[in-house]
Amino acid sequence: MALKPDDSRIVTVVGGGLAGSEATWQLAKRGIKVRLIEMRPEKSSPAHVTGDLAELVCSNSLGADRPTSPAGILKEELRRFDSIIMRCAALARVPAGGALAVDRKIFSGAVTREVEGNPNIELVRSEADGIPDGPAIIAAGPLMSGGIAEAIKKIVGEDCLSFFDAAAPIVTLESVDMKRAFYAGRYGQDDDYINCPLDKDRYEIFHRELVSAERALTHSRDGENGKIRKKYFEGCLPVEVMAERGIDTLRFGPMRPVGLANPATGKDPYAVVQLRRDNAAGTLYNMVGFQTNLKWPEQERVFRMIPALEEADFVRKGVMHENAFVCAPRVLDGFMRPMSGGKPVRDDLFLAGQITGVEGYVESTASGLMTALNMSALIWGRAMPEWPPETAIGSLRRYLSTAAPEFFQPMNVNLGIFPVLDVKKASGGRKKLSKPERSLLFAERSMNALEDFVRIFV
Prior knowledge:
Blueprint: E1 10-14, H1 18-28, E2 33-38, E3 61-64, H2 70-80, H3 84-91, E4 93-94, E5 99-102, H4 104-116, E6 121-125, E7 136-138, H5 146-156, E8 161-167, E9 170-172, E10 182-183, E11 193-198, H6 200-212, E12 220-221, E13 228-229, H7 239-244, E14 271-277, E15 284-287, H8 296-303, E16 314-316, E17 319-325, H9 328-331, E18 339-340, E19 343-344, E20 349-351, H10 361-379, H11 392-402, H12 435-457
Parallel strand pairs: 1-2, 1-7, 2-6, 7-20
Antiparallel strand pairs: 3-5, 4-5, 8-17, 9-15, 9-16, 10-11, 11-14, 12-13, 14-15, 18-19
Helix pairs in contact: 1-10, 2-10, 2-12, 3-4
């Protein structure tokens, strides 16, 4: 049932993160009045440090930006819709090779100014303690306040699931010993990263101390039987958890040395820690892939065993926080509306962001765009948008709707959720493609599928 078109109708968006900011912007640019409710700085979460909108609380990287990579395809789709997140990320971009990384302060500041300056948006700085009346998008994020979390649990009729997410430490450039580090990108593609090499003996000592280091408590209690449980998202494992899986796990993961020949020796090191620029001035660098749950004194002790970081100044320690998400295939309809008894509890209530089961900055942004288009169609009495499944956004939407509920976990965009390519040989049968060929075809198919959709909904 569509709402009656009404120029005076106000949509309430709860949460000023990436999804909420994007949803707010997309609605406002379509002439819809929006009230954006953000609790910060009146009240903060365990991971936030500012009151700015769209604050990045983990990495400063929004992922790969190559137009043929899954994350790059998703970014291109967002740019076609004039995404505020993509536009502000371009303004705040810092060198990061093939990735889109930003200066956090410049980025979130730009988003905040854009939202505050839009005449269709009212920014309310207070905590929402429940589900608003009238058209609403709940984009409160995985660190939502208790009132919203309880309201969502009540609506969907089951407890939210959860997993632990983590952030990597940040060091100052001047504290890195560049006599024992070098600038380089893999296979000489760029020189945006600082590489801190370790030989075999140093690596084995580092690995031993990392595995045995004392960790912060991150347990939560299972609502059914009171047992202690601990879940980690596989795409963002703490470095110490990866290390537990085997002595060489890190050397095939965040510490892989392949393609990073040390100019001092002409050879690849045994293992390497990469540092990526974290601000525009180039004074801060984060430890790539080193999200961690070690206690803060232990972080300094263990990470200073990396030769180039023996005197590192850790201006931000690694942190870990518990994220919440709902079982989307069970409790959300195909348009991101909470369901009860197999039907939306309200036609005009949508969820957006990581609470829906998407994982990642850009994926959360995409969910904000999706819900904004859904709400816009509802308000103006139009058919809800059916995203082409060949697109990255359409693939994410399909995953949330069709994944097996009993195994559901948050998902980044990846080629595995896209519809299978069906490329035939001239003689019949499926043609085997190289990875670059496959990636290019996925990207081309996405853009082609998006053309008609953009003409209708942009």
